[in-house]
Description:
This protein is of the alpha+beta class. It contains 20 helices and 37 strands. It is globular and about 80 Å long.
Amino acid sequence: MICRDVIYWAGQFDVYTYLMHAPKLKPKTGGSKQRKRQRKYYNQLCAFDIETSVLSYVKDRSGAVNPHAIMWVWQLQIDDYCTIMGRTWDEYKVVCEEIDRACSERDLYLVVWVHNLAYEFQFLSGVFRVEPDDVFAVKSRKVLRCDIGRIEYRDSYLQTNMSLDAFTYKMGVAHCKLTGTLDYRKTRYPWTPIADSELAYCVNDVRGLVEAIDAEMQLDGDDLYTIPMTSTGYVRRDVKGAMWPIVDRMVKPLLPDAVLYTLLRSAFWGGDTHANRYYTGKKLEHVKSADKASAYPAAQCTNLFPITPFVMEAPSVARLKYDLRCRRACVMRIALYGLRQKYSWWGFPYIPFSKCDTCADPVLDNGRVLSADYVVLACTDIDFDIICREYEFTGMRVFQLYSAKYGRLPDKLTDVVKKYYYAKTELKGVKGQELYYTKSKNKLNSVYGMTAQKPIHGKVVYDGVTFHEMSVDASELDDELQKAYEGAFLPYQWAVWTTAHVRRSLKDLQWACGRQGVYCDTDCVKYVGTVDFRSINKELKQKARAAKAWATDPKGETHYMGVFEQEDEYAEFMTWGAKKYATSYRKGGKITTTIAGVNKRIGGLELQLWGGFDAFRLGFVFRLAGGTDLVYNDDPDVEPLQIDGHRLEITKNVAIMDGEYTLGITAEYARLLGYRMECIEWSV
Length: 684
């Protein structure tokens, strides 16, 4: 149903008069000086969105044909009071002028949420004058916040880390996103009539967003001054508040200087994701999967971390061996000579080629080092132990070595993590607690992301047309770190050790699977046959009990952080490498794909259309599920178009084009697998 009584077309609603009488929001944080410096906001929740069409036939003045996008409708939601809609940028300019006039007279700002502001910003910055200092971007073209006049646009996608569909659904709002009801392939213009279903789609996008933001703020007791700008901001706020009493005593002494920080950055490895090359390209049946429950939170609650300041050691093999015997936490930069994998049958080599400073004459397994004459890399003592178990080498040299004492993370930190875990477990499936469950689950999943944030980032500069990422110069690193450390409440090394512990735990299960291991991804191992990992889980449960990292769900079942849980068995499974596999829970049944750049659901349907797993071969082209490509037009040199008797001006835009994905592997990986590239260029 469309609530037509709350829809106003541009010119029908006097936004100036409305805002002149709208309530303002009083700051409730900080001292009097901070409140005087802080900008004042209207106590209004607003959202903005546009719908666009791609014109693929547009010629620029040089005669070149490029795709361009045009806006054919915009909608501005003001609280749950009304939805203002228009068809042209000129109409929106008039509304913004009225907003600016009211805001200026009352010395207030209007916050407007946009889901994926990066997209709308590309259009807005071509219509309005946007000053470089008014744009805050976290990456190139990834705008978190920007000011245009007295309107402060904020990105709700970065704030939630969820699609609008998922966000409105999980918040249980009345106007969820109407996914699938608008055909984006149809070309529409600002004069194209809008059907009722299309109108409902447009309204729900902004009205549902306002409702979802409102529900989220009520859940956390936030307002427009206190609501975090990013999804990790919620966890950051909780952890910072918990850690603050011990920051000076425990955290400040641990903060690394520029040299140590650079080494820690190099030693920071991500999750272990790899396909066993001996199963690559083969359709398997009855593939089982064991997943580690809450892997990153469990690592922080149940394992040991460096808790004393790192001491720079004399870089020698003898000193490293001594520190390892003393069970000290070590971070090092080492060289390994004559590196070879111990067992040729082992399918999960550990060393990533991308983490090597130098790698001479390597033999690679899809990005992992099988052998090399000479390797230089940075790692922790945990990584070094895994390397020694899986590789042999003829010589070794230590270039840098730091060590510290191991100990438990402070209770102030782990208590916050466990609080999220308890809430997520105890509220699962409880009627009326869906929002609290969702929020606790999101916070638990965000803990690692918060701890792994770099203390310093390169600057992202907007020059009025496009973005430029400026890296931090080595000569400025010390000064930048000191600035960042003024508000620091966690040392970076704890993030480095978190990922190392998760990789080590995954290795335990990989080794238990042996030749039967098929695929691994950060917190799970897929395997064939029968694998007994009860002894691994027994040890993990003991660690979880000791750390009180367990909770009971509403059914009375006890769940332990970090144990491996048996997932449903795949009837069919096939992989072509990391993040590149297809699965089915029933033979001949529905297929799901997990391929970077390919829609999971549509990818499976497309495979089934062409023969199922038999079609999942190198060279297969995903055309329906191939995702999208973005074509940015920062300075379109296009004459106004004359269409249907209307004049259409092309402004700065970004065109979303249907993309294709061709299933493939590198020539190097193909040689390792025994394929000839000229034999695998099949496509449909």
